[in-house]
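Record 1 of the preview.
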Amino acid sequence: MEVAAYQPYIDPDYDSFIERIYPAKVCIDNETCRDCTLVKVDSANKHGILLEMVQVLTDLDLVISKSYISSDGGWFMDVFHVTDQLGNKLVDESLIHYIEQALCATRRAGLSKEIQGSSQRKHFGPRHMSSEHTVLEMTGTDRPGLLSEMSAVLAELACHIASAVAWTHHDRAACIFYVEDGVRTGPITDPRRLAQIEEQLENVVEAHHAKGERRSVRLTGPMAGQTHAERRLHQLMFADMDYEQCRCCGHSCCGDGGGRGGYEHRKGCEGAHVSIESWKDKGYSVVNVRSRDRPKLLFDTVCVLTDMQYVVFHASVSSEGALANQEYFIRHRDGCTLDSETEQRKLTQCLLAAVERRASHGLRLEVSTQNRPGLLSDVTRVFRENGLSIMRADVGIRGERAIGSFYVTEASGNDVSPSTVELVRKEIGGSVLVVNKSSGASTPQGPLSALSAGLIGRNGDEKPRLSLGSLIWSQLERFSSNFGPIKL
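->
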């Protein structure tokens, strides 16, 4: 975030000067509140700093229950109320030290060399797109078996998948694969080989698309400074215009004639709702987002506001039981408020899409099995052959084991039967844990742990997370050194 563009011109070197004179201050307070830890941040302001702060906390699977934000006058101040996934305060000194270092480092455009080389980073590493892998990005029409077919092509072309993450929303799909050369160790850098792989994948994606239908396949070599993986998924789906079908509470997102970008939220309704009002006296547009609460909701919302070039000057975020309320006082980076109905409608739809993309649909399966080449192809083929559609996926490597988190439904959209799950478990040949079942609603427990892109080091070392799923696996393994398949 930054002061709006109509302010007087400031030399680009001014930012770095301010950072040296007024470095960011971070305070971790475990005394003020009985049931949560307060993370307080004071820093010189810049565009995107709010997202960077939220990103640090959500990458640690911490739950942000409340937040108060102010960034007027060129200074950023924020208070986050956080707990771990089990609702406990943060008491691990190494974790607290890492948070202090990482939040200060965001003002210096990334983690410092000290943090990058520290032992803490091995335990609390951020989910950035890996600069050590070839990156495959795909967007297109969702259909059963798409992930399976793409991973099969990669396996046939001797491409090892180090990690992958995929989302689906409104019949659209976006996924990111992190790939290594199966012939030579390391990323794929040969331009001819990259072109061959990309052509084969385009054929798979194109096969089920109508003429002129939106789709994209992009394969790039490793590069420094790549975008955070989950933020990149938001960007891919935004570019794919998955937001076009989004509606508030089942109604139209059109303004109601009163300068708002949505309708009043009905009492007792848990559907996502966005309203936009004009506060002309102060020169702000006031955006209210009310939805079912879930982990990473704040991150998803701020991603959209930041990437759509809106500046958050003040904000308040809180939860009431199962519902979350978010209020933002914003302007566009050019200093303008959202005065046109068209702009209000688009922002409303994009915020609704941000809320919905990570919503948990279907049965969640946590899979742990011995890693091997072509494993993702085999696992997704088992899902496809048993008539299951993958709604979301998040897979990676932990030591010599592959860990995957999948949300699945029947191809018809119905719930998965226990007999089908049992068949899948037997065919996969590893440990399969049914975590929860939801019917189109996001769950308060939130993501349970599968490693996302960027959590795998070059040497395959594990970077453990403070997630409930990690705790589940660690406790089960602790009770049995011969951990076998779980009977469902």
